[in-house]
Specification:
The chain is mainly α. 83% of the residues lie in helices and 0% in strands. It has seven helices and no strands. Helix 2 packs antiparallel against helix 5. The longest helix has 35 residues.
Length: 214
């Protein structure tokens, strides 16, 4: 009877399946946000998919939280599972904020720095998607996981430089009557930079899990 009951509950592998699904939505959101930064009609065309990816990721996050409560044995500490999925979710939540700001401020043209920030977000999304499944076999994959997290950290550092350059360009080329446009452009650039920061937070959590369990 007890064994039959346990078969109805989530297994350890459930978490890695859910992490993988969430990472897929992060990649989808990142790629669609990058398409928005091409400007013109691409803004409105790809905006709904960014929102859809964020909604799907939220659904997975809720499934992870429910699985934590219902699972006898988890692959690693329950608190770490919840923190990791929260950090992952923060990244796509931030993408949604970027997309909504672009629509709110009716931006349809973007300088190269915006597209470079978008490229950085896509790179981080793919690196995160590669790293998360490796947690299922932490010990043999520890070195590779740390390498991927370090690559996310380097992308984040590069994004800081892009953000700084972009802010300087915005200030230098702002016309006297363009203060409102400057403020809108600065907000979107700031939001892009924060998105990359959220990936760094996720990478730090992954590294912490590896340190604790390997």
């Amino acid at each position: 009877m007890f064994r039959w009951f346990r078969r109805l509950l989530p297994s350890e592998n459930t978490f890695f399946t859910l992490f993988g699904r969430h990472a897929d939505e992060i990649v989808r959101g990142a790629e669609q946000l990058r398409e928005m930064l091409n400007g013109g009609e691409a803004v409105r065309r790809h905006y709904p998919t960014v929102l859809a990816a964020e909604d799907a990721a939220d659904t997975v996050t809720r499934e992870v939280i429910q699985a934590v409560r219902r699972t006898f044995v988890t692959p690693f500490d329950r608190g770490s599972i919840q923190t990791l999925i929260s950090r992952m979710d923060d990244s796509i939540d931030q993408m949604k904020k970027v997309a909504k700001a672009i629509i709110l401020f009716e931006m349809t043209e973007f300088d190269a720095d915006y597209r470079r920030m978008g490229d950085a977000i896509v790179r981080c999304a793919h690196l995160l998607r590669e790293a998360v499944p490796l947690l299922q076999a932490m010990s043999p994959n520890a070195q590779r996981i740390n390498e991927l997290c370090e690559r996310i950290r380097r992308v984040e550092s590069d994004a800081d430089d892009i953000h700084e350059t972009g802010m300087i360009d915005l200030y230098r080329h702002c016309p006297p009557d363009g203060v409102l446009r400057f403020l809108a452009a600065r907000e979107v650039l700031d939001q892009l930079e924060r998105t990359v920061d959220r990936f760094d937070d996720a990478a730090n959590e992954i590294e912490g899990i590896v340190v604790e369990h390997v």
